[in-house]
Every structure is written in structure tokens, then in C-alpha cells.
Design a protein that fits this description.
- By secondary structure, the chain is α/β, with parallel strands linked by helices.
- It contains 14 helices and 17 strands.
- It has a five-stranded parallel β-sheet with strand order 5-4-3-11-12, with helices on both faces. Strands 6, 7, 8, 9 and 10 form a five-stranded mixed β-sheet that branches. A three-stranded mixed β-sheet has the order 14-13-15, covered by helices on one side.
- Helix 1 links the parallel strand 3 (23-28) and strand 4 (61-68).
- Bound molecules: adenosine monophosphate (AMP) and zinc ion.
- Zinc ion binds next to loops.
């Protein structure tokens, strides 16, 4: 039946195909970098990683943009409390986010973009919205007039036609019951960071960020837009209102939203204080792979209730997988090939792929893998599994791990602290600046030996523990 997704916009499961060629243009709302992300946030990003991997496994190329929200009410509040500039403050949590996502083996998007690098583009968009009659000004701030966009509510499936025209809201997050004209440009308040772009000193609202960065890199119509369910309203509804008012074209073809991770039945959130970070869980002796497995194992549209038993079960499942692989690599099997087991492997591949095609049903995909492993183990016990069957069995594991990516243990990094890694990276940078490439390469090799992988990006060097 092919790959299909549940689309929040149409409330239907739909066959997926990109608009142009073989390239999937996709946008993900990234983190607001004012703290360490918790594993609830990481669930949303793990879903996006599984989505990326399945799309690639089906032969698509990706152009995936993720933003970093580095200007926002909570950032301003907490940076001021820490006596830091918003740039110094957000850098710490942006780096931490990249470390956490690397530890979870989440593939980086093709483009990771920061809101503060796009203020000029946002103001241009706001001016165009103004020309088209979608905005009004009040006390130096600019608002979007939702009464002028009749299909407002199409994503969250709410009828907002009766709302009071002209009532407005300055905060970025609010309930459906509170739908009002939202802010595009916030006038500067005392001591707040602000930009002078010809529409009064101020800063952009959160919603305009994503519309502008998405369309700048991906064009007027995106194939896929993802985020957690809490972003459906108002954030994504507002993104549609802004983008479609600007272009007159459909903004996003498939909207995919991941459900929450909860603790004791409540959404895990920073404000409730009921959260664990990846660092917390690793500090308690869990591996990043176990966290990855746990987050990926529940289909993204189902709620995931976090428990320590759940992490333990994930650890045990990974051990079973690794033991199975070890057995296959080291046991001596009888000569020949058992055709029945080749058929069994083909059936496992089919079930695995079909489960993922079915709106990324990871639970079914895992079930297919474990049933196959059980059957193969039984065949190994009885001697029916032959040397000639290892190829297909290994291919299945490779296919499995290209999506779930838990088979290889994380290498311990030989005790190098983050500060030591940073010091070596500074040395490498200095060596490169002095055109001492030999020394720069030596440092890279030294880090690699310690399990540290470095990546030169246009935003500087990124590193991760393998
Ligand atoms: P934020 O940094 O708050 O904008 O959140 C980043 C991403 O994490 C968004 O896609 C949110 O929808 C998602 N998110 C926040 N809390 C949870 C949670 N408890 N479970 C799953 N996803 C979450
Ligand atoms: Zn967004």
C-alpha cells in the first residue's frame, strides 16, 4: 500500500508523495533554548528522526529545516536573571541540545537555522502582510487580524468565526478558547533586546519565525511540517494564516503531530517540574540507546507514559537484539541453506516495512523483528538454521538498525571531560588558523581515538560522543 501518514489537516490517513521530484521538503519546530530539553521534547525529535529514516529508506532525499528559537519571552526573562546576553545564554542550551540529540543518534536536519539570524526576513514578511491588509498596529506592536483570514481554524478544526474582532494577545502561547489576533512584532519593553528594522524597535513574535524560515529555505509549499500536538494551536494555525496570506498558496501538504510523553498521566513539562532530561537518565546509569528505544517504541500518535520499568524493558530488549547478533556472528552453523528460513526472512522484511509504512507503526515493526528473532533462534537451537541463511538474517538486522539504531553500544569517551574536548578543539582551531594542518589533523585523530566525533559546519565545529 506504500507509505502513508495521518494528516492533522484532513484528519485522514493519506498516501504520501512529495510535490516535486524525489525530494521531501520538511520543516520541524525546534527547541526554545532557555533550558536543557527534557525527554518529552526529545520524544518529538525522536519521532522526526524515525520519520527521516523511513523516508530515506523509501528512496526519498530530504531537505529538512529545523529552527532554533533563540528569542522569546522565557529566554529574555531567564537570560536577564542569569545576567547574560541572550546570545551567550542561548548558546549554552543550543550546544546542549545538539549534544543530547547526537547522543540519541538523531540525524541532524539538512539546515539548522536560528531565529535571530532572520529578523530582517521576518520584518519583510510583516511589511508584506501589512500591504495586503492583514495587520494593524497598537502601542508600537503589530498584530495579525485573523478575521481577514476566513479559513482560520482549518488545522485545529475549530470554528472561530464568532470571535470578537480586534481582541488581541501578546503572549505566544494561549488556548483555543482564547483565540485572538496574535502579535507579529512586539514593541520593545524596558531593557529588552530589540531590533531596529524600520517598523519600530522591537522583536518578532514566535509564529512569524517559523513561517519565514520555512518558506525561505523550502519554498511556498512544504511537503511535511512536524511538531508536538501542543503546537497545533495556536502556533501552527498561525503559521498557516501568515504563510497563506502571504502567498495565496497552500503552506503545508501533510501536517504530522506527535503525542505527548507523560508522567503519572500528566504531560511532562518544564512548568510542571515533572521532567527528566537525558542527562538525568544517563546519570542514573541508563544508556542513550535505551532512552532512544523507549521513545521510538511507542507509535508517535499514541501517548507514551514514562516509567523506569519502561526504560528497564528497553534495556532488556536491546540486550536481546545484541545477543542475537552476537550469536549470528560467532556461532558455527551447518553447511547449506534452508529455503524455509529464507522465506521467513522475506516475510519479516515485509511485515517490518509494512508496519512502518502504516503511519510509522514502530510497535508493529518491533513486534515483527522480535517474532523473526524468536523463530530464527529456535531454528538455530534445532540446527535448521544453516550457514547460507546468515546473509538474509544479517540483512534484516541492518534494515532494522537503519531505523531503530540501537545495536551498537555508545563508546565511552575515555574520560575526556567536555572542557577537555573544548580545549583540544580550541587548539585545533588555532593550528588551522596558523595553517598547521598536520597538528590540526593530529588533534582530530586524538579525539577520534577517545570516541569523540567532530563535524565542521558553517556555524563552527560540532562534536559528539560516539
Ligand atoms: P518547546 O521547546 O517547548 O517549543 O518544545 C519543543 C518540542 O517538544 C515541541 O515539538 C513540543 O511540542 C514538544 N514537547 C513539549 N513537551 C512535550 C511532551 N511532554 N511530550 C512530547 N513532546 C513534547
Ligand atoms: Zn514553529
Amino acid at each position: 500500500m506504500g507509505l502513508r501518514f495521518y494528516n492533522t489537516l484532513t484528519q485522514q490517513v493519506e498516501a504520501f508523495a512529495p510535490l516535486h521530484d524525489n525530494v521531501v521538503r520538511m520543516y520541524t519546530c525546534g527547541p526554545t533554548v532557555y533550558n536543557y530539553v527534557h525527554i518529552g521534547n526529545l520524544r518529538a525529535f525522536t519521532f522526526q528522526d524515525i520519520l527521516r529514516r523511513v523516508l530515506r529508506a523509501r528512496g526519498y532525499k530530504l531537505d529538512h529545516v529545523m529552527n532554533i528559537t533563540d528569542i522569546e519571552d522565557k529566554i529574555i526573562r531567564d537570560a536577564a536573571a542569569a545576567h547574560k546576553s541572550i546570545f551567550d545564554f542561548t548558546k549554552v542550551y543550543t550546544d546542549a541540545f545538539l549534544e543530547d540529540t547526537a547522543a540519541l543518534r538523531l540525524e541532524g536536519p539538512e539546515r539548522l537555522v536560528k531565529a535571530t539570524d532572520h529578523i530582517h526576513d521576518m520584518v519583510t514578511a510583516i511589511k508584506r502582510l501589512e500591504q495586503r491588509g492583514y495587520t494593524y498596529e497598537s502601542d508600537g506592536s503589530v498584530y495579525y487580524r485573523i478575521a481577514n483570514f476566513p479559513s482560520y481554524g482549518q488545522l485545529s478544526h475549530n470554528d472561530f468565526s464568532g470571535i470578537r474582532a480586534g481582541a488581541r494577545v501578546d503572549v505566544d502561547e494561549y488556548d483555543k478558547a482564547d483565540a485572538r489576533d496574535f502579535v507579529l512584532w512586539k514593541a520593545q519593553k524596558d531593557g529588552e533586546p530589540a531590533w531596529d528594522e524600520g517598523i519600530g524597535m522591537g522583536r518578532p513574535g514566535w509564529h512569524i519565525e517559523c513561517s519565514v524560515m520555512a518558506m525561505k529555505y523550502l519554498g511556498e509549499t512544504l511537503d511535511i511540517h512536524t511538531g508536538g500536538v501542543d503546537l497545533t494551536f495556536p502556533h501552527h494555525e498561525n503559521e498557516i494564516a501568515q504563510s497563506e496570506a502571504l502567498t495565496g498558496k497552500q503552506f503545508v501538504r501533510y501536517w504530522l503531530h506527535s503525542e505527548h510523553l507523560s508522567v503519572d498521566g500528566q504531560k511532562m513539562s518544564k512548568s510542571l517540574g515533572n521532567f527528566y532530561t537525558l542527562r538525568d537518565l544517563i546519570g542514573m546509569g541508563n544508556t542513550p540507546e535505551a532512552v532512544r528505544y523507549l521513545l521510538a517504541s511507542v507509535p508517535y500518535r499514541k501517548k507514551l507514559n514514562f516509567t523506569f520499568d519502561g526504560i528497564k524493558a528497553a534495556t532488556t530488549a536491546i540486550e536481546r537484539l545484541r545477543n542475537y547478533r552476537l550469536r549470528m556472528e560467532t556461532a558455527v552453523f551447518g553447511e547449506g541453506l534452508n529455503p524455509a528460513l529464507e522465506d521467513r526472512a522475506a516475510a519479516a522484511v515485509k511485515s517490518f516495512d509494512e508496519a512502518l509504512d502504516d503511519d510509522l507503526n514502530t510497535a508493529e515493526a518491533l513486534a515483527a523483528a522480535f517474532e523473526y528473532i524468536r523463530d530464527t533462534n529456535t531454528a538455530m537451537d534445532s540446527g535448521e538454521f544453516r550457514a547460507g541463511n546468515t546473509g538474509a538474517a544479517q540483512d534484516f538486522l541492518t534494515r532494522f538498525d537503519s531505523i531503530f539504531d540501537v545495536l551498537n553500544p555508545s563508546v565511552k569517551s575515555g574520560g575526556l571531560s567536555d572542557a577537555e574536548v573544548d580545549a583540544l578543539l580550541s587548539e585545533r582551531k588555532a593550528a588551522k588558523a596558523a595553517r598547521n594542518f598536520k597538528r590540526a589533523d593530529e588533534v582530530r585523530a586524538q579525539l577520534a581515538e577517545q570516541g569523540i566525533v567532530i563535524e565542521d559546519t558553517k556555524d563552527g565545529v560540532r562534536w559528539k560522543r560516539q
